[in-house]
Every structure is written in C-alpha cells, then in structure tokens.
C-alpha cells in the first residue's frame, strides 16, 4: 500500500482531490479570509522554502501571529498538493493539555472537521488512520520517544513554545537533536515567542531562523507611579504599620519618587505580600468609566485563588462579564473566554494567557507582575509553588496581549524601578525542580543518566542529579549499584509522583487498592476540605467529624467515601452534603477521575486484571485493615516520616491565624523530627488544620507525611500516624537505626535485608504474613 505509513487507506491522488474539494467550500474560504490576515500567511512561501532546504529550523514571531494554527497547515497543505498526502504525518507539541485540546479544536474547525486533525494528551486521544496533524502535549511526545519509538512514520515534528523551557521541552529537544542523526527523514521545526531564541539556533548547529514580523498596535505603559496618585483608591492594608524611616528609604529606591500615597501603597503591597485585588478592581472601574466603547480587559494574576478573589471584587462592574482562565478549568469553561460579549469582557487569568492562548479583543492588560512557579529545594527535597516576580521577558509578553486589534494600554501593578530589577529571562525549569522522575525515565531509556542529561541545552547541576539518583535508591527504584529494579520499571511507567506510584504498586500487591487509589488521588489533588477565612473554625469542626485513624489522608478518604455513597442516591444530595461540610465538589471530581486514571494505568501494567474497578473484591481483600493501608501509605512516603515527641516535653505555641498572632490556650505542640535528619535541625510542626492536631491518643510516635510547607514555620498538613512495625518493614537501614534503637527486636539485620526491593516478588508473601501478624 502506497505511503500509508499511518495506515491512511486513501492514495495521494484521493487525498489531494478531497483537499481540493474542501478548498472550494464556502465555509472554508470564509475562514480563510480571516486566516490570510495573520502575519504568518505573509511568511508562508519563505517558511516553506527554508523548510524545504533544511532538516531543522527555528520560527519566532509575536504571540498571535499564527505560528501554532497556521504553520502546521502550511506544511500539510503543501505536501498534499505536491502529491505526498498519504504519507504526511505531522506532530505538533504543546506545553499544556489545555493548549493541545484548544489548538486542535481550532485547526480542525479551520479545516471543517475533515478528519485530518487529531490530538493526544495523557489519558485521552482522538486520532484515526486519516489523522495528519496530531497535536499532543510535550509529555506525550517525550514518552513516545522514550519508549524507543524512532518516529519512523512521522515526517515533521513541530515543537511549540520552546521558549518556555520546561523540563519536558528541554528533554524533547535533546531527544530530537539525537534522533536527527539517525532518522534521516524527519524534519524538526521549533517555534518560539521572541524570547532568547538564539540558544535554540546554537543548540541545533546554527539552524536557520525565520522571523514572522507582527502587526501589533502600539501599547502604552502605565506604571504604578503613573496612575496611582490620581486613582481614587488607596490600598488600606489593615493592620499594616506605617513604614519606618529605613523601610521608607527602601521604598523610595523602588519608586524613584517620593509621592506619599505611592510609597504607602508600595509598603502595603510588599507587607501584604499578595496581589491587591482591590487596586485591580479600582483600575477596572477607572477603565470602564472613562471609556464609552467597551472592549476586553485581561488581568494577569499568579494563581486560582487570586483569580477567585478578583472575580469577586469585580462583581459590581456594570455592563461587564468577568471570566476566569487557568489550566484547571474544563475545556468548556475555557472556551467561554473566546465568545464575543456585548459589553466589557474581563478575563482574570494565570500565565496561560501569556503566550499559548490568544484572545483577540483585548485592549487593556492589567499585570500584577506576579507568577507562581515551582521552586525546588534540594535541602529537603521538596518542590514548592512559590509566588514571585515575573521576568522582564514575561512582562513584555503580557503587555503585548493588549493592542492586538487596536492600540492598547498596559497597567502594571509595579514601578519602573521594580521592573528594572526583575530577572531578564526565566531560569529553565530543569535547573529548579526535583529531577528524580526525569532521572528515572532517562535511566529506563538511556541507561546513563548523567551522560545523557549533561547534553541538555542548560544541564542541571550534577549535584542535583546525584541527589535525584540517591532518592531513586531510597525509593527502591534503582539498586545501590544504580541498576533499574522491577519497582523502578513500574514507577517509570506510572505517570504520577514516584512516591504515589510506589504506593499504588504496593496497594495492588497487598490487595488494599481501593483505599490506596483514593489516598494517592487525594495527595495529588488540591485540598478536599476548603477553609474560608471567615469560617475557619466551622470548617475545621466539619472536617473533625470525619476524623479517623489519626490520619489526615484517611480522614479525607472517609469523607470522599461518604460522598461516593451519597452520589449513588442522586447528585443533589451530594452538593448539599459538600456545602454543609466544607468539601470542595471540584476536588471530589478530580479525585474520582484520578482514581480512574491510576486504575487504568495499573491495568495497562498488568498489575491488576482488566475490567477491575476501585471496589472489585479481588483488589480489596485487605482494605479494611487500617494498619496495612497505613503501612502501604508509609511505604510510598518513606522517608518522609517524623517522630512525635509526645506531650511529656511539649511546649505551648503560638497559633498563627489570618495574619495575626493569637495565643491559643489549649494548643499543644508536638515537636516533630524528620527522622532522616535526626534530632538536629529537623524540627517540623503539625499544622493546626491537621486532624492529628487535636488528637489525644497516640498509638505510635511516628507520622508519615507527603508535604512539608514552609511559612512561618515548617508545617506538616497531611500527616498519618504509622505503626512502628510498618516503618521497620518498609523503611531502610536508617529506620532500623532510628526506630529500632528504642525497641527490643530480635534481629536488626533481618529488617535491613527486607529492603531488598529488587526481589520484591519473593518478599511479598513474607511481608504480608509479617504485617498481618504485627498490625
Ligand atoms: P501564535 O501561535 O503565533 O501565538 P495562533 O496560531 O495561536 O498564534 O493564533 C493565531 C490567531 O488565530 C489568533 O490571533 C486568533 O485570531 C486566532 N485563533 C486562535 N485560536 C482561536 C480560537 N480558539 N478561536 C478563535 N480564534 C482563534
Ligand atoms: Mg502559539
């Protein structure tokens, strides 16, 4: 069969004929008129020329110029018309699921749903033998390459938004750089916003660059010092003291200006350390009141919480529709931002609106200047989502979103001076996140982790890789000699946090999978119980009703199960129940879908039988044994364990509530020690929101936790009391040293040997018998 590498049943001539028919249709030509106005269209010939002569090229252009939606179609159309339609297969990668779905839908619509466009994101795909343009996430493409696929059947791979410098993006470029040497057919196109693109050109041995010149209208900048003094709003900052002389000096140096109201505002903003949504609301009112022609206002905020707060503050703006835009929305909710509205369209967005999504009618941009970014702390091996200043490159992108259809204005919630202190470019993600997942997948695909990763555009510090390998050893994913273990092989195939993956594998082996699926889903979701500022006490009492097993995870699991039971009786009851009990219905949904996702992955790994459900009896033989469930949770989380110093030497402590410090009478402090670090410097505190905080009865002085959180103190929010024997069985030699030290047990060496995960299959029965006897 001719060409047909993707299994297309039509020959070149038929594909061409069908495309020519498509081009005659009125609906197609109607859209084409609009498409032709995009700057990308003017560059079409040039683009195809350069591509024809090279195997790799870089394309840059302002956001919205038509790179993503048009260039892949140029490649496709030209090949169809040249009579190669049956064999063409183009992959376009997108950094996020949201953009992969959105762009696939858009391009498919531009081709009148002719079946040539498909998508593939984790756990969901739509493609057929006739798919010629496949939009997938960077992660999907990376896993495909990682599984040994040499892309023999792919003619072009287009890597979009390379300027974002995500770990997956950087690794994909590394894979492709190597693949270009072996696969002589494949062509690679990198697409980037105009940010620091020279590094890609250099990395791909002076690949040719095509710049698509934009058509953006001029955008005026309004910095804090420009508008605040004349705005009828002053940040109030309840409880914030006036700046001291020294603080005042520092403020002047940030503002280059001694306007008192401006300095005070800066002071409040810096003290409150959060985005001032009142100020944003005042700006929006100023804009809508001083302009008679309504248009779009795009507000950049660091996170979902700020988006919610902002939408609340904007409720009273007349003749306006305010909408959220962030990665956690459903595709329908996301699509809402594209719909035309008669009045003002106000969109409160995270940085997803910076480059990957274009909303045409935006005239005003309000930039908070803040972004939440993953920050990895190699000291304690935890990744934190931290709010920080955006880079100047990102600020420029945000500003550029105004003025797409006419001249615009960008209001910035910072001063010129503050902007000049921002980092010029983002630090590549690979240099600031935990690398154990990366190390594991590279171990599987390339063997030598350091050798491979050191060839990335910006290789991470070798010490970071050493740490990652040590963690893999600790998890039992690799042997002390560095060889992949069976557990490691499973973990590499599970698309979840490695610890949760290990928990799932063990949950399947120990036949208590139902609760473990839920527990792992809870740990990968946002908080199940919400705690509104003004109703903290009520919320915490609501949660306390579900308290069980001295465990935050089991408590949440209990509440989730109750919801699931009610759902069988009809959804209206569930909603009321959630409202009464401060349970987030969207988190319930997330947990349900994650459970299903975990389950299907375990099935695809042959760890459990096809057709299993979370409640299948064969998966749940031991699910009612709380001790065993806790042991499995611990096995995944190890060594994230702290020793509780019981009230004997407990001291009073200050409870921090809503920004003010209150002395809580009955509050008890348990001193916790991260047992890996021992007694020195490893002090952590149980967060008052933990159900264990009020617990009076302790069966074991150990708790396992998933995350530590640094605010005023180092807090544990999700603790689970774990049986001592579970630690001895699932912990490593350190556990024996720290835990068994105080116990009378026969043979410590035996416990050390039990850590031999490579032989997990042999040990399972032994462990299960031991656990059954001990717990
Ligand atoms: P780039 O990748 O260069 O940032 P895109 O190809 O994503 O640009 O977008 C080009 C243009 O296509 C946008 O400016 C917008 O006019 C239009 N467009 C993109 N996606 C959609 C959509 N979902 N609905 C309507 N128009 C869209
Ligand atoms: Mg794009």
UniProtKB/TrEMBL annotation:
Start and end residues of each Helicase C-terminal domain: 278-446
Keyword Acyltransferase: no
Residue ranges occupied by any Helicase ATP-binding domain in the UniProt entry: 48-213
Gene Ontology molecular function: ATP binding; hydrolase activity; RNA binding; RNA helicase activity
Keywords: ATP-binding, Helicase, Hydrolase, Nucleotide-binding
Keyword S-adenosyl-L-methionine set for record: no
Enzyme class: hydrolase
Catalyses which reaction(s): ATP + H2O = ADP + phosphate + H(+)
Domain of life: Eukaryota
EC number: 3.6.4.13
Protein name: RNA helicase
Parent-record interval covered: 371 to 1145 of 1181
């Amino acid at each position: 069969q001719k060409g047909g590498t993707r299994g297309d049943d039509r020959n070149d001539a038929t594909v061409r004929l069908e495309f020519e028919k498509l081009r005659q249709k009125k609906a197609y030509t109607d859209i084409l008129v609009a498409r032709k106005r995009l700057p990308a269209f003017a560059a079409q010939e040039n683009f195809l020329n350069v591509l024809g002569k090279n195997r790799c090229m870089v394309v840059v252009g302002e956001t919205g110029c038509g790179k993503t939606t048009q260039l892949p179609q140029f490649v496709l159309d030209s090949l169809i018309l040249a009579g190669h339609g049956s064999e063409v297969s183009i992959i376009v990668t997108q950094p996020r699921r949201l953009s992969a779905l959105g762009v696939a839908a858009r391009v498919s619509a531009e081709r009148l749903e002719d079946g040539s466009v498909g998508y593939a994101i984790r756990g969901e795909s739509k493609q057929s033998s006739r798919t010629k343009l496949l939009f997938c996430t960077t992660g999907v493409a990376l896993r495909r390459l990682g599984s040994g696929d040499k892309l023999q059947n792919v003619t072009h791979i287009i890597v979009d938004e390379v300027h974002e410098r995500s770990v997956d993006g950087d690794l994909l470029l590394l894979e492709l750089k190597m693949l270009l040497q072996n696969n002589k057919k494949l062509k690679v196109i990198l697409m980037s916003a105009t940010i620091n693109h020279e590094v890609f050109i250099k990395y791909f041995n002076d690949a040719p660059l095509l710049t698509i010149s934009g058509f953006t209208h001029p955008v005026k900048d309004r910095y804090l010092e420009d508008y605040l003094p004349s705005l009828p709003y002053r940040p109030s900052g309840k409880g914030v003291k006036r700046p001291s002389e020294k603080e005042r000096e520092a403020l002047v140096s940030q503002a280059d200006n001694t306007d008192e109201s401006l300095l005070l505002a800066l002071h409040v903003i810096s003290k409150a350390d959060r985005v001032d949504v009142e100020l944003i609301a005042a700006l929006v009112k100023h804009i809508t009141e001083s302009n008679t022609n309504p248009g779009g206002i795009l507000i950049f905020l660091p996170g979902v919480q700020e988006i919610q707060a902002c939408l609340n503050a904007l409720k009273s703006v007349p003749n306006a529709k305010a909408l959220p835009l962030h990665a956690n929305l459903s595709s329908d909710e996301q699509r809402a931002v594209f719909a035309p509205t008669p009045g003002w369209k106000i969109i409160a967005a995270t940085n997803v609106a910076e480059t990957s999504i274009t909303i045409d009618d935006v005239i005003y941009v309000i930039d908070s200047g803040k972004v939440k970014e993953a920050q990895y702390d190699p000291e304690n091996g935890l990744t934190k989502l931290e709010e920080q200043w955006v880079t100047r490159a990102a600020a420029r992108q945000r500003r550029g979103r105004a003025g797409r259809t006419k001249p615009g204005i960008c209001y910035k919630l910072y001063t010129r001076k503050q902007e000049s202190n921002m980092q010029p470019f983002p630090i590549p993600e690979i240099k600031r996140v935990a690398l154990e997942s990366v190390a594991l997948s590279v171990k599987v695909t390339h063997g030598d982790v350091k050798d491979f990763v050191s060839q990335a555009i910006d290789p991470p510090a070798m010490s970071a890789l050493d740490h990652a390998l040590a963690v893999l050893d600790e998890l039992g994913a690799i042997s002390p000699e560095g060889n992949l273990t069976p557990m490691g092989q499973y973990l590499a195939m599970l698309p979840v946090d490695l610890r949760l993956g290990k928990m799932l594998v063990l949950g399947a082996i120990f036949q208590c999978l139902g609760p473990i699926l839920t527990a792992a889903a809870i740990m990968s979701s946002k908080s199940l119980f919400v705690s509104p500022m003004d109703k903290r006490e009520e919320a915490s009492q609501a949660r306390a009703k579900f308290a069980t097993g001295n465990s935050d995870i089991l408590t949440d699991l209990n509440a989730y199960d109750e919801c699931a039971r009610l759902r069988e009786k009809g959804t209206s009851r569930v909603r009321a129940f959630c409202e009464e009990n401060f349970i987030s219905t969207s988190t319930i949904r997330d947990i349900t879908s994650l459970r299903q996702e975990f389950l299907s992955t375990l099935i695809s790994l042959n760890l459990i039988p096809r057709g299993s459900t979370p409640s299948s009896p064969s998966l749940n033989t031991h699910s009612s044994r709380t001790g065993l469930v806790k042991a499995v949770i611990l096995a995944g989380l190890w060594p994230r364990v702290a020793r509780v110093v019981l009230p004997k030497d407990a001291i009073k402590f200050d409870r921090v509530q809503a920004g003010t410090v209150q002395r809580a009478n009955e509050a008890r402090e348990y001193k916790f020690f991260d047992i890996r670090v021992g007694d020195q410097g490893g002090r952590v505190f149980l967060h008052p929101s933990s159900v264990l905080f009020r617990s009076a009865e302790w069966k074991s002085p150990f708790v396992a936790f998933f995350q530590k959180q640094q605010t005023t103190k180092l807090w544990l929010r999700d603790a689970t009391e774990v049986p001592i024997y579970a630690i001895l069985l699932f912990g490593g030699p350190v556990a024996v040293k720290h835990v068994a030290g105080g116990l009378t047990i026969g043979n410590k060496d035996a416990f050390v040997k039990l850590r031999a995960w490579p032989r997990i299959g042999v040990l399972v029965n032994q462990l299960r018998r031991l656990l059954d006897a001990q717990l």
